[in-house]
Amino acid sequence: MVPMIDLDSFKELNDTAGHAFGDDALAYVIGMMKERAAVMSSARSCSTPAGPKLSGTSAL
Known about the structure:
Blueprint: H1 10-17, H2 19-46
Helix pairs in contact: 1-2
């Protein structure tokens, strides 16, 4: 899966502030997306539909 995003006014930012600044802005956005994906992934792995399986108990 490849995510696709639309950054409002990115072309204007890139054209006025320069391509190096635009590259840094893209790197920042990608870093934020990676952090959010990691948080969502860890939250998803902490919960299971059946709940935690504890020693000495049976699943319902």
